[in-house]
Amino acid sequence: MGVRRMPAARAAGIAAWTAASVTWTTAVVALANVPQEPSALTPVAEHAASLPVEQQEAVLEAVPTLPDSGLVVLRYTAAERAEPEVIVRRVVTAAPTGAPTKTAAPTRVKSSGS
């Protein structure tokens, strides 16, 4: 049953298309990462030559060297979170002046059970 669904010609076609796509993708990535030569007459280079330049004597390592054996402990210090600001809004309205009004008794609503 497997031979009927995947004949040798189909498997060869899949392998060929896969190889071609991997080859083209590799070529595109390689061409995109080629360093470009700076042009001889760039305005930045002309102005940069006249500016004073500080030279750094020692170059610090970007990442500390790892020990030959043992554990490496990374420490994480969490920043303190600010407390959320509580906003209280109070609205005061004046009672209506005039004759007192009779308030209706609250009505009971029967639940439908859901």
What do you see in this structure?
This protein is an all-alpha fold. The protein has a domain at 9-33. 32% of the residues lie in helices and 0% in strands. The chain contains three helices and no strands. The protein is extended. The two termini are 55 Å apart. The mean pLDDT is 78.
Topology, element by element:
Elements: H1 2-5, H2 8-32, H3 43-50
Major β-sheet annotation: none
What's the total helix number? 3
Report the strand count: 0
* Low-pLDDT segments: none
Q: Specify the helix fraction band.
A: 25-40%
- End-to-end separation in angstroms reads 55 Å
Q: In terms of structural class, how would the helical and strand content be classed? A: mainly alpha
Following the backbone from N to C, one meets helices and strands in this order, namely HHH
Defining key terms:
114 residues
How would you concisely characterize the structure shown here?
The protein contains three helices and no strands. It has 114 residues and is an all-alpha fold.
